């Protein structure tokens, strides 16, 4: 059942925190370290500084244009047909992000835990679970995100506590890795690593009050950034600069480092359970909001029947890349580079048009 505006602050916060914060445990760190080496842990901060002002501006515009979601806001400001073109581009970005990210996670699951299983089988099973979860509706997704958030974050906290003994702080030097100019360039190019914040704006009217949505997304964004920076810093201190860019999944590697005394070794399976839970929730949220964006563009109010065909399309297109290297280091890298200027500039264009139209004086 489609959401009727019944979510609370804690549920909005939980969903945002899951969809943003899980980047600490995927291959984003490996992607960012290719050029910057051991200075890569600063890149998310630069990316966040580039894109967050635009996100705040979008929240401001949504507050000014009451009773609007992301698609309605864009169409209201720049006109119906021009707005639909921009929103269609937004949908394409959301769909491609969903597709490339999901292939990345499926590759992680396969390589780490089911090495003998075919990729397509793992992919289908993964998205059957995602589809069944998304089919429950946005309210159930929000409630599930909130009740599981504590366990997901507790598992990450345990990893942090147990790995501190293996950290070598000297490995963080030189602070800027290959150079400050490279960090700044990579930070701007990969600003869209936080593009999910913009996609979530389609659900602006889903909370009991829009102020809850604004507070929840802002607070969760800042917390999620802190978590990403903390774990990226840990990866730098655990792995030396020569190996950091060669490690595809550093979070899973450090879970194999840790143990609880002599009798509790190989506890990475414990952490895998909560990582899988977070991964499923991320894509349940993501496939739902992507279908929602498409539904709003083409005035399909009951868009939930689209969840099944979209889930099938994601798997079909996600299987096209030959391997995870092409998917991550070529396709995802290119997508982030293309999306970044779009999300950095779009909010300011919308604000400028709204300002000259006189709509902001209301």
CATH superfamily membership, which one?
Amino acid/polyamine transporter I
The count of helical stretches stands at 15
What's the end-to-end separation, in Å? 35 Å
Beta fraction of the residues?
under 5%
CATH architecture level-2 label: Up-down Bundle
Q: Into how many domains do the coordinates divide?
A: 1
- CATH C-level: Mainly Alpha
Rounded to the nearest angstrom, the radius of gyration is 20 Å
Q: How would the global form be characterised?
A: globular
Order of helices and strands: HHHHHHHHHHHHHHH
CATH topology grouping: Amino acid/polyamine transporter I
Low-confidence stretches: none
Describe the protein in words.
By secondary structure, the chain is mainly alpha-helical. The chain has a single domain, classed as Up-down Bundle (Amino acid/polyamine transporter I). Helices cover 72% and strands 0% of the residues. Helix 6 packs antiparallel against helix 14 and helix 7 runs antiparallel to helix 13. The longest helix is centred in the first third of the chain and has 34 residues. Belongs to the amino acid-polyamine-organocation (APC) superfamily. Spore germination protein (SGP) (TC 2.A.3.9) family.
């Amino acid at each position: 059942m489609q959401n009727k505006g019944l979510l609370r602050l804690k549920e909005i916060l939980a969903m945002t925190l899951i969809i943003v914060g899980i980047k600490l445990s995927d291959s984003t760190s490996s992607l960012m370290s290719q050029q910057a080496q051991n200075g890569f842990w600063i890149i998310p901060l630069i990316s966040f500084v580039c894109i967050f002002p635009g996100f705040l501006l979008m929240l401001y515009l949504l507050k000014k244009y009451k009773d609007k979601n992301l698609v309605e806001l864009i169409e209201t400001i720049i006109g119906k047909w021009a707005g639909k073109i921009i929103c269609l581009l937004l949908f394409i970005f959301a769909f491609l992000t969903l597709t490339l990210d999901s292939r990345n996670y499926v590759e992680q699951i396969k390589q780490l835990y089911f090495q003998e299983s075919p990729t397509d089988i793992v992919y289908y099973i993964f998205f059957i679970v995602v589809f069944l979860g998304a089919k429950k509706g946005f309210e159930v997704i929000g409630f599930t995100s909130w009740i599981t958030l504590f366990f997901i974050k507790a598992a990450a906290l345990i990893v942090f506590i147990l790995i501190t003994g293996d950290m070598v702080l000297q490995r963080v030097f030189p602070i800027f890795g290959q150079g400050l100019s490279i960090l700044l360039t990579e930070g701007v190019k990969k600003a869209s690593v936080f593009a999910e914040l913009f996609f979530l704006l389609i659900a602006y009217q889903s909370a009991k009050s829009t102020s809850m949505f604004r507070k929840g997304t802002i607070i969760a964004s800042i917390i999620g950034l802190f978590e990403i920076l903390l774990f990226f810093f840990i990866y730098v201190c655990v792995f030396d600069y020569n190996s950091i860019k060669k490690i595809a999944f550093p979070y899973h590697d450090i879970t194999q480092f840790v143990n609880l005394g002599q009798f509790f070794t190989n506890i990475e399976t414990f952490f895998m359970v909560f990582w899988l839970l977070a991964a499923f929730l991320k894509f349940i949220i993501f496939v739902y909001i992507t279908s929602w964006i498409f539904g709003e563009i083409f005035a399909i109010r009951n868009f939930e029947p689209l969840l099944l065909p979209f889930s099938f399309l994601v798997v079909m297109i996600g299987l096209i890349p030959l391997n995870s290297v092409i998917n991550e280091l070529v396709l995802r890298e290119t997508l982030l580079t293309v999306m970044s200027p779009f999300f950095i500039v779009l909010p300011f264009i919308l604000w400028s048009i709204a300002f000259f139209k006189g709509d902001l004086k209301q």
